[in-house]
Amino acid sequence: MAVHRKNNIDLVCSIAELSGLFEKRASVGGFLQNVVDLVAQHMESEVCSIYLYDEDTEELVLRANRGLAIDHTSEVRMKLGEGLSGLALKELRPIRVGRASANPAFKSFPHVHEDAFNAFLAVPIRRSLKRIGVIVLQHSRPDYFDAHDAKALRAIASQLATTLENAELIMKIHDQGNGSDKRQNRGFRRLRGIPNSDGIAFGKAVVLGHRDELYASIVEQATESHDTIEDFDRSLRESVDQLEFLQREVTQILSDVATLIFDSHLLMLQDPEFTGKMRSAIEDGTPASQAIIDVVQQYVALFAGSGNPRVQEKVQDIQDLGYRLLHNLVQDMPESGSYADHVVIASDLYPSELVKLRAQRAEGLLLVSSGVTSHISILARSLGLPMVLCKDDAALEIPNGTRMIIDGFEGNIYIEPTNDITQKFQRLHYGLLHAAHEARDVPLRTTTVDNQRVMVQANINLINDVTPATQYNAEGVGLYRSEFPFIIRNHFPSEEEQYLIYQRILEPMKDHEVVLRTLDVGGDKQLSHLSDIEPDPNPFLGFRGIRFSFGHEDVFREQLRAMVRAGHRRKLGILFPMISSLDELLKAREVLSEVLQELADEGIQHNPAPRVGAMIEVPSAVDLVSELAACTDFLSIGTNDLVMYLLAADRTNERVQDMHKAHHPAVLRALKRIADGVGNRISTVSVCGGAGADPWMIPFLLGIGIRKFSVEPRQIPVVKDLISKMTIRESRRLVSKLLSMKTVAEVESYLGTS
């Protein structure tokens, strides 16, 4: 009889994170392989397999395996009730046998050399009575698996059920995309891309910059009865009404980044040089539809030829206006906006354009580019806009109106999908909505198995993120990235505008702490409207973070004033980014002290003593951490930038992205040095970078003493669940083990990430 070999809690919590399939950037096949590798490692099993149930053929299909001699897993199939695995699924019960080949129900597949494995444990994967699949363990030693193993495997199967159901659905779609559906629909094809913002989008293609085709199709609908001056005036009035409605609606939900984002549209409609030219041409006998097209094209050429990037950006506004006017001319435009029921395809995009697309109800975005800046991805995720990055320029030639599905989880683009594929993605979409709704039942307090209190807070990018943060019971805001209102607008937001934004972040958090980070621009977050900034030859090592604030002290002071005013009678923390020396921290504190004194002298209500923190994200800060800790109330480790600077690997550069690893031995040792340098003030340290939600890093961070994590709102349920299944004792053992390793390969082999 096998001996109970491990703490099964560790395995279950690791699988809990793997079950967050769509938090990953791996393929579905890669996810399933991660599962079998991890289970086999923790259960010390020579073989682990996952079979998923195909309802259409009533077959179990081997989808992932570790330990069997097999090239193509999908070649191994068995009917429901066939073999021990099929029997386990048919009867919806675990089957554990000491010598599988001696059991009359055993089915052998000679080409996989399964007979060498005696011990057999199969557990059905199900959701209620719905059959999803089977997870199987095998070992050469007879009677190897015991009741503890069966119990652990049942817990794993339960946690994986919903995700594996979605995985089977996606894999079937892929199978069809590579097979029979192509014969059924010659228009169907699939492009591969890189997922940048999760979600599934359905809609008709619209290629930004290819408006001529759309104009032509609208003009075809126009008759002589549409082309009078009266029709033009009606179209103009309707366009103004629609844009004013959009302006009011968007300002309510995205006031931090969307104030007056349609002002340029409205101003153009009121410009006598713009609409006046159209009216004059119509009065001279030009059909209204043609007059609109002619003037729009003149302005597009004028703006596109400008050397000012902000003027160039208005090209899209002009094209949107022409599209709207033409649609209203033929009375064929829904009031909600231009991009409802559309998937937008673009070769490049400003952040402000991304916000406008969301405001105009775009379903999803296909960005055809060689790279995408991190703030575009963050912004798309905060806006809930599914986005895929595609390097194939052929995507820009997709005809407008083509039916599409964007899979923001896997990075696939389906062009003219079959009805079957569409229906399956719709089922997946509704299933994900249901799962997200269920995830809201999250406990407020988080403790480890051995009763250590751990705080899980939210990273906030936009006001839009506050709602899911509160729904998932975030214990405050560990990081508010204040730069987005600066990046997206055409100007610096005023002190009053910022004050209102920060109020809307602070108020819903009530008595919880809220940490507002001062402006962190530079690197891949540029302010293109600031004329006195010359392009940095190396922006990540240039004029960014606190350096920018010192260089624009008027902007810095306004921001600090707005922050402490909004923090009146609130638990407010102010966080300074990119601190590389004690001198910078002391200077920032000095400016803050002066601002506090100014407000007191002016008699303006404010928080007179906000907690002050510094970001630890550059190597020099790691070495100065004890001095920085002595001069702050808290520290926040920004692991994304810290990893980048330690390893000289830009996470936005696709050629070195794979080198950007938080579990690199140098990073692990740096994190331990931070914890040791802070000493008994470790409780004041939080992790706000991506490592804080990484299942491989969370045990290590707990082990070095981190008790505060700040993660994206949608990651909160999984992170809380992970932590609640861990022990500090086991985490400390992991730290000791990992710190003894010298290579990334060693670490990955031990963690099971390779």
Automatic annotation (TrEMBL):
Q: What is this protein called?
A: phosphoenolpyruvate--protein phosphotransferase
Enzyme Commission no: 2.7.3.9
Please report the stretch or stretches of sequence annotated as the GAF domain.
27-174
Alphabetical list of PANTHER family matching this protein: PHOSPHOENOLPYRUVATE-PROTEIN PHOSPHOTRANSFERASE
Q: Which UniProt keywords apply?
A: Cytoplasm, Kinase, Magnesium, Metal-binding, Phosphotransferase system, Pyruvate, Sugar transport, Transferase, Transport
**Record's keyword annotation contains Magnesium:** yes
For this UniProt entry, the molecular function terms from Gene Ontology, in alphabetical order, are: kinase activity; metal ion binding; phosphoenolpyruvate-protein phosphotransferase activity
**Compartment list:** Cytoplasm
Taxonomy, top ranks, is: Bacteria, Pseudomonadati, Spirochaetota, Spirochaetia, Spirochaetales
Organism in which the protein naturally occurs: Spirochaeta africana (strain ATCC 700263 / DSM 8902 / Z-7692)
The cofactor(s) it depends on are: Mg(2+)
User: Which Pfam families does this chain map to?
Assistant: GAF_2, PEP-utilisers_N, PEP-utilizers, PEP-utilizers_C
User: Which Gene Ontology terms describe the biological processes this protein takes part in?
Assistant: phosphoenolpyruvate-dependent sugar phosphotransferase system
Does the keyword Manganese feature in the UniProt annotation? no
